[in-house]
Amino acid sequence: MNWKEIAEEAGIEIIWVGKEYGHEGSYIPKCSLYPNGAIILCVLLDDEEIEFVALHEIGHLVTGKSLAKVNALLKHIEHCKNEACANRFLLHNVAPRFVDENERNLQWATPDRLCEFLGIRSTFENIQIAQEEIDLALWGEYD
Fold first, then answer.
1. Is the pTM of this model over 0.70?
2. Is residue 115 a contact partner of residue 126, using CB atoms and an 8 Å limit?
3. Are 90 and 120 within 8 A, CB to CB?
């Protein structure tokens, strides 16, 4: 399922903006205007970048918690958890293709390279998540 189908199935609105926005993408939490939330994407990104940014932002809406609902002292911790959930959603959706494009070769389909390919930081947590998703893709654990 591609990112547009995921957004449509989840009822997530897509808002396209120009370069003046200043971000590659972001999300709007569920609210009265957007009952299932919305993602904001920059029209200047290429198709692959749009896919990765969209999956990350969709991940916030389907796995995260709005920071507005979190105590101020916990915002940093909750933000990190939200980013990890969004990154896991992105990695889960791209890892199978990444593994296949690298001919299922473990010397090329590494967690570091997957993070680099997606433009996410190679933190310990992201590397661990990427490795889990690569293993799932390699051993046929996907639906």
1. no
2. yes
3. yes
